[in-house]
């Protein structure tokens, strides 16, 4: 059996009941076959893959907090410190009822390669809780965040592990967690990113993931002799990534016709009016169906189905496995030629294989959504230097980073004889840097 297959079997056997983690490992290992087969003896000798698929540390803890009725609630929280070969653990915190160890391990594993692709010195980590911020009062969210940080603050630090936002964690949650960290540790340091602009945050961080996604798609389009101008675009989700992907795509002349949430999707053939979406989602914390109250010519449909709308470009920006084989087929049948992932692993493996086998241009999340964490790393840099850069300065750096990622990903695919396969390109290019660092540092991780 090949080294890669052997490791995958071992991962499945040793991590039972963790399907998302198995899925993420399989995708990466399948791509790495090309590299590993060429260097098998060397990698086997240092047990590189055994070490790569095992998190350095998982902290799992209970978060008790008091709700508005005076009742004590208990949630589970985790921080997966996956790999620190190239820098301190870096990755978001997700608050969603579906959160479990499998999901956080898949996200932490992906983050290793994504962070490597940015070219910045950040290792891979992820955390979160099964706490659901939906429908909670600000005071309840504060109580939860403070209780979580009372425990988490023992394990993180500006040079150790730097969490940020993800699903269910935005500026409000980062603020409450940061305040509690500072209070307990008595350190005013860049321990979290995505902070508010008056207390150490970076300009462009809010927009970074969505903007970065559109910047890398722009590079892909350039190579095909196309531009965003006049393209019809579907964006799933209506949270942080979806909103700013829509904003930048519109600025570049695209027509974004749909957005969604976990209840359903809106279709606006005239083009989504983003100021209305921002008011609903960022101010009122409402649902996407409220869009049709303000825009009666738009249509709201309950349930899945967004991928059946005809488009040129699809940008899944909600959550893992939101786009399956049937969705991929529907996209292709209706004229979609390019898919780029704002979310982490939104396409199932079958959908991904379909894009690649049917001539669709596809950029996987670990490359396409790396602009968020890259800008987080720029926030860390500014915090260390104790200064802040202008919007234009950060945006320019972000554009440079996304161009760099596209170049690395396409180059790695070419080097290994799979030109245009950006799944292989992203996994290989991300892996190469981490593997070299692990080799150099010896049997410490
Ligand atoms: P938000 O919480 O701001 O928004 C999440 C959006 O996705 C909401 O519209 C939400 O709908 C929808 N969604 C979440 N879970 C589900 C589900 N199970 N089924 C259907 N829809 C769902 O999160 P972000 O925009 O920050 O994150 C979106 C994706 O992007 C995630 O995969 C995240 O890991 C990834 N990402 C985020 C980065 C960041 O900087 N924020 C960076 C890189 C990747 P509803 O309100 O109904 O739950
Ligand atoms: O998935 C991701 O890359 C994020 N949620 C952002 C992580 C970060 O540290 O900014």
Characterization of the model:
With 445 residues, the chain is of the alpha/beta class. It contains 17 helices and twelve strands. The strands form two sheets. It has a seven-stranded mixed beta sheet, with helices on both faces. Strands 1-2-4-3-5 form a five-stranded mixed beta sheet. The model has no long low-confidence stretch (mean pLDDT 98). The structure holds NADPH dihydro-nicotinamide-adenine-dinucleotide phosphate and (2Z)-2-iminopentanedioic acid.
Topology:
Elements: H1 3-14, H2 19-38, H3 40-45, H4 48-52, E1 57-66, E2 72-83, E3 89-95, H5 101-117, E4 123-129, H6 138-152, E5 161-164, H7 171-185, H8 205-223, E6 232-235, H9 240-251, E7 255-260, E8 264-267, H10 274-283, H11 291-294, E9 299-302, E10 313-315, H12 325-333, E11 338-340, H13 349-357, E12 361-363, H14 365-368, H15 370-385, H16 391-415, H17 422-441
Parallel strand pairs: 3-4, 3-5, 6-7, 6-10, 10-11, 11-12
Antiparallel strand pairs: 1-2, 2-4, 7-8, 8-9
Helix pairs in contact: 1-2, 2-5, 2-17, 5-17, 6-7, 8-9, 8-15, 8-16, 12-13, 15-16, 16-17
Bound molecules: NADPH dihydro-nicotinamide-adenine-dinucleotide phosphate (NDP) and (2Z)-2-iminopentanedioic acid (2IT).
């Amino acid at each position: 059996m090949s080294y890669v297959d052997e490791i995958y079997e071992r991962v499945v056997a040793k991590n039972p009941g963790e399907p998302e983690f198995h899925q993420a490992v399989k995708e990466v290992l399948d791509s790495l076959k090309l590299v590993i087969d060429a260097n098998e003896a060397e990698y086997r000798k240092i047990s590189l893959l055994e070490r790569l698929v095992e998190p350095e540390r998982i902290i799992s803890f209970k978060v008790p907090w008091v709700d508005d009725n005076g009742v004590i609630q208990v949630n589970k929280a985790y921080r997966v410190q996956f790999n620190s070969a190239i820098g301190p653990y870096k990755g978001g915190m997700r608050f969603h009822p579906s959160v479990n160890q499998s999901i956080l391990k898949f996200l932490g594993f992906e983050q290793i390669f994504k962070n490597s692709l940015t070219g910045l010195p950040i290792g891979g980590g992820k955390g979160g809780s099964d706490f659901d911020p939906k429908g909670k009062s600000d005071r309840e969210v504060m109580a939860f965040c403070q209780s979580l940080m009372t425990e988490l603050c023992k394990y993180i630090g500006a040079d150790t592990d730097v969490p940020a936002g993800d699903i269910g964690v935005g500026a409000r949650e980062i603020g409450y967690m940061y305040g509690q960290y500072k209070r307990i540790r008595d350190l005013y340091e860049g321990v979290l990113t995505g902070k508010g602009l008056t207390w150490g945050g970076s300009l462009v961080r809010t927009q970074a993931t969505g903007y970065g996604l559109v910047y890398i798609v722009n590079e892909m389009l350039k190579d095909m002799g196309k531009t965003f101008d006049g393209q019809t675009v579907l964006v799933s989700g209506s949270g942080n990534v979806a909103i700013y992907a829509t904003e930048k795509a519109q600025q570049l002349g695209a027509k974004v016709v749909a957005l969604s949430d976990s209840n359903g999707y809106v279709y606006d053939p005239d083009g989504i009016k983003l100021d209305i979406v921002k008011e609903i989602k960022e101010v009122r914390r409402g649902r996407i169906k409220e869009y049709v109250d303000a825009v009666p010519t738009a249509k709201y449909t309950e349930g899945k189905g967004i991928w059946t709308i005809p488009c040129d470009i699809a940008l899944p920006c909600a959550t893992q496995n939101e786009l399956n084989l049937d969705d991929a087929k529907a996209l292709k049948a209706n004229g979609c030629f390019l898919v780029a992932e704002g979310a982490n692993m939104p396409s199932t493996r079958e959908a991904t294989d379909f894009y690649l086998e049917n001539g669709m241009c596809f950029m996987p999340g670990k490359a396409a959504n790396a602009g968020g964490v890259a800008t987080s790393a720029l926030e860390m840099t500014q915090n260390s230097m104790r200064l802040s850069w202008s919007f234009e300065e950060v945006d320019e750096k972000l554009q440079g980073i996304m161009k760099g990622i596209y170049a690395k990903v396409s180059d790695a695919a070419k080097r290994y004889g799979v030109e245009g396969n950006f799944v292989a390109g992203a996994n290989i290019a991300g892996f190469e840097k981490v593997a070299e660092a692990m080799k150099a540092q010896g049997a410490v991780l």
